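Late entry, written up from scratch paper. The run itself happened at the end of the previous shift, but nothing got recorded in the book at the time, so transcribing now.
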Amino acid sequence: MDKKKSFLSGKNFLPYLYVLPAAIMVVGFFITSAIFTLLLSFTEWNGLSEVKFIGLANYVKLFQDEYFIQSLLNTLIWVFSALIIPVIIPLAFAIMIISSRWGSVFKNLFYLPNAISPTIGALIMTSLLSNYGLPKLLEIMGLSETSTYWLGIPYVNTFVMIGASVWQAIGTNLVLLIVGLSNLPSEPIEAARLDGAKGLQLYRYVVLPLLKPTLVIVLLMAIINSFKTFDGIWLMTGGGPYRTSETLAVTMYKETFINNSYGYGSAVATVLSVIVLIISITYLRQTFKED
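Output as recorded:
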């Protein structure tokens, strides 16, 4: 009893008051919404009529829907690309920049696109890739066979949008990796150099293992961001043509707010959330198990 009183009235209770507003917001806006979305995924509802419970019908329909399957494949392409392009390229640049006398200039230059909102970035890339942008320039240069509207070509436009996304995402990852490289302990690196390690051998066996905590954060951020990619796709192609460039986030939005299938859209949202949760937990568990 005395211990309980000392906890409630003492300094031990004070830190919890600071996190209480954030905890209330998480419960109120995130957990409650997640539970509501999950419950809604078992229903048929257009936002106006009476909610009708239909069990697992929405989930059965999902895996019979060719648009959902295409959307899932596109999302996996985004995720796979996020594991390679926005991590390897910034890592290579970070290694070069950290040893350069012009490092701060290049760091600001690469980070600049990240200061632009995703919406503005998508509009810039749409204008650049329009028929009066880069394709027109290539046509003037005599490369008419490559002067085409790439965003209008099914499946090709997905890779074009991934490239546009990398343009904006590279800045944050670059800064994180530069900070990680700057804070590495010098003793193991110097010892490896004295033992004859250099170049790729030094980075592979010494630097990268030491950089692992930062790489874990960068990779996890890249995976999660690739799953929820929406702004760029919606503004650049709208998921088209013929819904071939949709990701799960775009499909969820279309089904919910355009087709007014709130139950079906909630099922897409639930599947997306479960996939992200499973991949994140598996990745983190495997990472910490290795440590």
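The mean pLDDT is 81.
(Scratch paper discarded after transcription.)
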